[in-house]
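Weekly puzzle thread! Below is a chain. First person to post its structure in token form gets bragging rights.
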Amino acid sequence: MRPTAQDLLGRPVDLLDPALHASGRAADELDALRRRAPVIWQPTRAGGIWCALSHAAALEVLSDPARFCSRLGTRVGVRRPPDALRPLHNLDPPEHRPLRRLAASPSARRARSLTDRAPDAPPDPPIHGSMGEPIDASDNRPAEAPPPSSALHAALIARVDRCLELGQCDLAGDLAPWIGAAFVGAWLGLPASKWPDLLALTRQSHHAGARRLDAPPDDHPHRAQRLQAAADAKDALYRFFDAELRAASAGALALWAAADATPWAERVGLCALTAEAGLQTTADALCAAALRLLQRPELRAHLGDPRARATLIQESLRICPPILHFSRVVDVDTALGGLRLRRGAQIAVWFEAANRDEAVFESPERFDPLRSPNPHLSFGAGPHRCLGAQVADEALSVGLTALAPALEVMVIDGEVERRLSSFTAGWTRLRLRSERR
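Winning reply:
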């Protein structure tokens, strides 16, 4: 049996339709489907994919790479050739452990090099296994985020002050992406003069990749052109990091440059993955939280308290995960949610659906800035839980703190437009203007 939206709701729902997510209706559709079945079948032009919607089903998929592997691809409709060079997120244990340890290495040796961490900072969120139990594995610890240096803090304040002087701000198109690039760039050890290059090259790679993956199925005449543009953009990002890694003298780059036991290409790929996975998601999550604070001014009081700010950020990530889904490939015939899944099938974990599961979250549709515990899956779970989770949390905390003065005097200017994508949740238009001029 393959339950579809047509079977469950009496009408078709295409979860892979970018327009559904851009319209803001996807959460309601996912809720309606999850309440009827933890796992459903989504028909596609190529056949179909399984979709894990409940928190329990999502956690089971994410936590069991022996049954649901990443090595064959983590994007719907994309299969990696067996001999392809695999980035970290396309490696399964035990093969992924050396590279994960390397990715996490800045936490032990560089985390506190920029400034001292605030004494009242909240503890790191736990890493969970297949049954929700904490995992204390050294190769699965998230990379620790250094608090902002005085130089980074000054740069952020100056950027926000400039927006206040102008009385306007393009949060989605300019300010939030810049904050993401500044924080990730500083964590990597890039000098401030390189942050604009980091942002431009990462954006170029994202846009070219999105044009390739989101192209209509019948767009055959332009397929080769899109493939080449995506390859060229990624190559430019790799060349940038190849040069920066060779010249590195600080931050994560310096540690990775000295890790001679890891092949050079893997180290360059790790740099590129850090940028591609970190910049846009940080910007999107920052926009989501800022938009919530603009729409509900009473929530801004939480920004002044580190613990309250931390729980608010986690709730924002739960309600609006920057990545909408990740996929796995079924590696053995298995069962999930009472259904039989055959080896070779693809299954997508829908984070927004899992994060609103009534079996785990009380009043999941309500934004509760003090929700605790908050076992959302926006950073994944198990052996592939995002190593940059703590870096992202710190970047959001720093970004929202820097934005606080602007949020007090600015309002939304015009229509807010969501990104046309079924993979990432973000905005193409989120402009602000000053009420007090």
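Puzzle host: Confirmed. Bonus trivia for everyone else. Residues 286 and 400 are 7 Å apart (CA to CA).
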